[in-house]
Amino acid sequence: MPLIASPAVLRALDVLEAMAADPGAALTVSELARRLEMPRATCHSVLIALTERGYVMRGDGDLRYQLGPATIAVGDAARSINSALEVTAHQAQLLAVQTSTCVAVSLRSGDETRLVQLFDHGGPFAGRGQVGQSMRLAPPFGAAFVAWGGEAEITAWLDAAGVPLDKKARTRYREALRAVRKRGYSITVATPRNPEFAAALKTLATRPDAEDARRVRDELALELTHSEYLPADLDDTGSVRMLQASAPVFDARGRAVAKIMLFGPGYDLTAQEVDAIGTGVRAAADRATRNNGGRQPESS
C-alpha cells in the first residue's frame, strides 16, 4: 500500500505558508481558519502545537498569532545550504542599486516559480513585485527557466498552457524560446489588462485564499497565453512598455534553478534600451552562475 502524506503535517504547513505570505499580519484563530477553509478547532490545535515549538507565537494580552523565532532558524539553515540563492541575491542587489530599479530573485519549485527576495531601488512609477508571488510554469510564464531545457521539458511547458495551443501558437512560443536563448534573457511587455493582472498577483501574495483575485489571475493568464506578452523580437523603430527582463542562474548540472528579474521603469523604452537592460540582467545572472560553480547547458 503506497504511503501518503500526513494530513496533520500538511495542515501545519498550510498554516505556516499562509502566515509567511502575510508576515506583517497578526491573525486570530478564526481569521486564519477562514483563510485556509479549515475547521476552527483543527486550526487552533495546529497553532497550539506550532506555538509550543516556537514556530508561531501569540501576542501578549491578545489572541493573535504571528510567525515565531524558530522559523528564522529554519530559514537561515535553508539559506546556508542554498548557495544559488545567496549568490544570486547578492548580484540582484548590486544590479538594483546600479540601475535604480526594483530587482527580484525567483526560484523554481516544481511546476511553479516563486519570488523569494526583492531589492527595491526603483522610482515611484517603476514596476514592482512582492515576495511570495508565484506563477505556474506555463506559457507565457517561466520562459527564462525552460528556454535552455531539453525537448521534453519544453514540450511539457507548452502542454501546461491553460488552454490547448494550436500549431501556430506552439510555433510562436518555440520561436520566443529560441530568441530567449540567443539573447540570454527573456522580456515581457505590457498588455492593456496588465494592471489588473499585477493587482491580482499582489493580492494573492498576501491572501492566497482570495477567490476573486485567483479568478482574475487565471482568466488573464489564459488571455495572455494568446497575446504578445512574451515577444520573440522587438520593433527597432518603435517603443514598448517593458514589464520585466529575466535571466537564469544555472547550477553545476546546467539546470536553471533561479532567475534574476528586473522590473521595468514604468515608461516606454526603445528596443535598444530594452536590450541594454536585458544585457545587464544577463551579465548579473552569469556572474551568479559562475560564483555558484554553475554552468550553462551545452544546448545553449
| Number of contiguous helices | 11
Largest sheet: 6 strands, antiparallel
Portion in strands? 15-25%
For the largest sheet, list the strands in their spatial order.
5-4-3-9-8-6
CATH topology heading of the largest domain: Beta-Lactamase
Element-by-element helix/strand order: HHHEEHHEEEHHHEHHEEEEH
- Binned, the helix content reads 40-55%
Indicate the structural class. Answer: alpha+beta
CATH superfamily of the largest domain: GAF domain
* Broad CATH class of the largest domain: Alpha Beta
Rg, alpha carbons: 20 Å
The overall average pLDDT, rounded, is 85
What count of domains describes the coordinates? 2
The general outline is: globular
Q: How would you classify the quaternary structure? A: single chain
Question: Low-confidence spans: pLDDT under 50, at least 5 residues?
Answer: none
Instruction: Find the count of extended strands (DSSP E, 2+ residues).
Output: 10
CATH architecture of the largest domain: 2-Layer Sandwich
What is the rounded distance between the termini? 43 Å
